[in-house]
From TrEMBL:
<protein>
    <submittedName>
        <fullName>Uncharacterized protein</fullName>
    </submittedName>
</protein>
<dbReference type="GO" id="GO:1990281">
    <property type="term" value="C:efflux pump complex"/>
</dbReference>
<feature type="signal peptide">
    <location>
        <begin position="1"/>
        <end position="31"/>
    </location>
</feature>
<dbReference type="GO" id="GO:0015562">
    <property type="term" value="F:efflux transmembrane transporter activity"/>
</dbReference>
<keyword id="KW-0732">Signal</keyword>
Length: 316
């Protein structure tokens, strides 16, 4: 058995320990000394505001059609030929003004209109047809030179002083409409005219179950043709004060059975608060319950999709 010197064994052991120490130092240098900090949780950017007191009116929205209820039909009073000049549609006429002129067929055949020597021949065969009332000529049905029969319609005059709108009110809403009630008329181009409910017509639509009223514009109004559809707004209640929020601040689920708003607990946390919304008017929603304090901060925009307790970032 071979024996190694003790000094050689000690040197070898020392070398092994040095190698282990070096390997340990290299491994510790490559290992992380501590864990990386966790990423900060994202925050939703929101704008906030307070609840507001607004004057609210419950409004009934209906449709009406423009109409000229007073019309005069101008008819031929004899058989003959229509003489020039013939008026044009849209022409304004006065009460008693001659609108159409006829010449009888006998007068044209015998040329009675050209006989001037004998004073006994006072009948010239020229017939004048005046308008019974002032208004605007809506239609002209014949041209100069046309041969017309006795009683044939020549034109139609609308009495502009009787211009109005025909309003059909559902029988379920009759309690909100009365004669003399003020209303607002919105024309197709966006103009709004003041109006007033005038006459109650003694007729109801059997199929639609509606009661018919006439509505008259108040003050000056533009000249409109018949059969123009307008929107009519009538107040269902007297004005009252109510707490409102913008429509965007009131959130709901897919079935629109649950409603809520997001209220700030502090500058970085918002919580869900169930609400019972009411009437919506001009982009604002009445909040019936709960009663928020004037200093409560509520999320106006950016609250869509937030959880019950959400981290937020104020942008206003």
């Amino acid at each position: 058995m071979t024996r190694f010197p003790t000094s050689a064994l000690n040197a070898a052991a020392g070398g092994l320990l040095l190698s282990a120490a070096l390997l340990s130092s290299c491994g510790s240098a490559s290992a992380p000394t501590d864990l990386a900090p966790a990423a900060a949780a994202p925050r939703a950017a929101v704008t906030v505001g307070q609840i507001r007191l607004d004057t609210i009116r419950e409004v009934l929205h209906l449709r009406a059609i423009s109409a000229y209820p007073a019309k005069d039909v101008l008819r031929a009073t004899t058989t003959g030929y229509l003489l020039a000049p013939v008026p044009v549609p849209g022409q304004v006429v006065r009460a008693g003004q001659t609108v159409f002129t006829l010449q009888t067929k006998e007068s044209r055949t015998l040329r009675l209109d050209q006989l001037t020597g004998d004073p006994k021949l006072r009948f010239s065969g020229i017939i004048r047809i005046p308008s019974a009332r002032g208004g605007v000529l809506a239609t002209v049905d014949r041209l100069a030179g046309d041969y017309v029969q006795d009683g044939e319609q020549l034109g139609l005059v609308y009495d502009q002083t009787r211009f109005g709108f025909i309003l059909d009110v559902p029988l379920t809403e009759l309690r909100y409409v009365r004669q003399g009630q003020a209303c607002r008329l919105t024309l197709p181009d966006g103009r709004v005219l003041p109006g007033r409910v005038a006459e109650l017509l003694p007729a109801a639509d059997l199929a639609a179950q509606t009661q018919r009223y006439t509505v008259r514009p108040v003050g000056r109004f533009p000249q409109l043709p018949e059969n123009v559809a307008v929107s009519v707004e009538l107040n269902k209640t007297a004005p009252y004060l109510a707490r409102t929020l913008p429509r965007e601040a009131v959130l709901t689920d897919e079935t629109q059975t649950s409603f809520w708003v997001m209220r700030l607990l502090n500058d970085s946390t918002a919580v869900k608060v169930p609400v019972r919304p009411g009437l919506e008017q001009q982009g604002r929603v009445v909040i019936n319950t709960p009663e928020f304090a004037p200093h409560d901060r509520l999320v106006l925009t950016g609250g869509y999709g937030l959880d019950d307790t959400a981290a937020v970032h104020l942008t206003n």
